[in-house]
Amino acid sequence: MDIVKALKKEEAKLEKHAKNALKHLSAVREAITAFGGSVAASAKSVVGKKKRKLSAAGRAKISRAAKARWAKVRAAKAKAGKTSKTAKAA
C-alpha cells in the first residue's frame, strides 16, 4: 500500500473523529446552558479554531517595517541629541 494513501486514509479517519467530538462537545454545552449554567468563553473559542500561519514573505515584510520604524526613532533621537549639544555650547 502506498504510504501517502495510507496517511490520507488516516487523516480522513481523524477528521471524522474530530467532527464527532465537536458534535458531542456542542451537545454538552447545550445541556449546560439548558440547566442554567454558563460555558466559559475562553474554552469555547479555543476548540475548533485552526491556528493561523504567517508566510515567510509576510514575516519579512513586518520585519522590514519594524526596522524602518526603529531607524526613524533612532534618527530622531540622534538629531535631538545633536541640537541639545549645540544649544549648550552656544
What does this structure look like?
The chain is mostly helical and 90 residues long. It has two domains: 1-52; 53-90. The protein has three helices and no strands. The longest helix has 34 residues, at 56-89. 0% of the residues are buried. The mean pLDDT is 85.
Count the DSSP helices. Answer: 3
Q: What is the arithmetic mean of pLDDT? A: 85
Q: Helices and strands: which structural class?
A: mainly alpha
Spell the H/E element sequence.
HHH
Largest sheet: none
Shape: elongated
Question: What is the structure about, briefly put?
Answer:
The protein is an all-alpha fold. 80% of the residues lie in helices and 0% in strands. The mean pLDDT is 85.
Q: Layout of helices and strands, plus pairs?
A:
Elements: H1 3-34, H2 41-46, H3 56-89
Kindly list the characteristics that best describe this protein.
90 residues; mainly alpha; 0% strand
